[in-house]
Amino acid sequence: MTVIDFPAPERLMQRISRYRYDPLGFVQTVFPWGQPGTMLAGESGPEPWQREVLEQLGRSLRQGRGGPSEAVRLAVASGHGVGKSALVAWVILWAMSTMSDTRGIVTANTEGQLRTKTWPELAKWHALSTVKDWFTYTATALQSARPGRERTWRVDAITWSENNTEAIAGLHNKGRRAFALFDEASSIADGVWETIEGALTDAGTDLFWLAFGNPTRNTGRFRECFAGGRFAHRWQPQQIDSRSVAMTNKTQIATWVKDYGEDSDFVRVRVKGEFPRAGTMQFIDSERVQQAVERALVTEWNPALVMGVDIARHGEDQTVIRFRRGLDARSIPAVKFRIPDLMAVAGRVMEQIGAHNPDAVFVDGTGIGWGVVDRLHQLGCSTVIGVDFGGKADRRDGSEAAVSYANKRAEMWGFMKEWCQFGCLPDDRELRADLTAIDYGYDAANAIRLERKDDMRRRGLASPDDGDALALTFAHPVHRIDWAEERRIEEKLQKLKRWVV
Questions:
Q1: Which of 126, 148, 308, 327 holds its CA 20 to 30 A away from the CA of 120?
Q2: pTM to 2 decimals?
Q3: Is residue 308 within 8 Å of residue 321, measured between CB atoms?
Q4: Where are the alpha helices (DSSP H) in 114-249?
Q5: The CATH number of the domain where 215 resides is what?
Q6: Are the C-beta atoms of 142 and 92 separated by less than 8 Å?
Q7: Do 260 and 153 share a structural domain?
Q8: Is residue 490 part of a domain?
């Protein structure tokens, strides 16, 4: 095999060629660590755990640890905020820069994670590197800038589908280098793992496969890379506690420990990098949501129409209005918009109230939402009720276990989760993503507590505005209002008033 043959300046070319099996040396060389005027001015280099992974990768490739025609495999389970995405970016740039015509793929648990977290992190480190002119960064690929080599010398960001894994199968690159990187690997389907396993098999080739993630599930292929797992003998695993990493938010970690308890599954996963005792930290599973989307519309006898309104709080968030009539959350489409003026928001909500005459309107009153609630009362809406997400839960679900909830938001999501077993959802991409994105844990009283929106943003996910809007339709039991009877009563009252006068 030859090393990089891109016509770069001779001195830099010679330096980079030394690092074919030394990813740590590469990372220490090509980025401006400690240089004044750069974003790394106050940084001295990778964290100890990152150094260890880089050294282990280089050593394993040099020693042929993967075996004949088999990839070197490293799996890292960690708590939150330890710098996984940065390490992924470094490995990509090292692999591409130290071997010409390298091919690779990068995927993640969701398209959102890949597009908004993993791939932008690569853009940042690519721009900082001394080899940035060697490659062209796009929204879906990093490829050689040398004419005619962009198809043979590239790494692609690929979203996966459990029903179609062929998009990630084309990794064969005999005689050169091929690699796969999984970010947030715990939620990547087994079929994707199996496809990569079949692709990384070329003899006489530098092959490696790295899987990173929070250990959110105690089943599946990521879990099986670690001690006691079916494939543990093929992988070199590490588990990283967030508290051992300098860059992590220690105040946030202390809050989690206080809220959930040191030995809770939430802290095990988000802090300790340990797998949960329960089956998964995902509150609503993808299969349940998919079945609700595919379920035929259920016809009921005159159920109440409930309207949920989640109010946007930040520029990227959106106000969402969702409707549910009994088991039907599909027939009336959602209304979504971004308007910063609360009075204008109240006006849009009143338009929908006038159009559909819901029996109840539940509005997220947390923070700025109370202003919308007050305005709706002023506009004459008698069915509006403000809901405090952080307020006390006042119901348990109907299961045999009679699950308790830490607050009103967890309670609403709990009832929505049970409803999904029988209800009908629209085929809405944003709603699907919201419903399946939230993790959960238990507080000291063993009550379910959902992951906070701010915590979701920290792991690259959007605020679940759409999911919260639908959850609001479960805020309180609602009985159908007979509007015709209401009008008859009002007419009688008006006649009585005229007679009295």
A1: 148
A2: 0.66
A3: yes
A4: 119-128, 190-199
A5: 3.40.50.300
A6: yes
A7: yes
A8: no
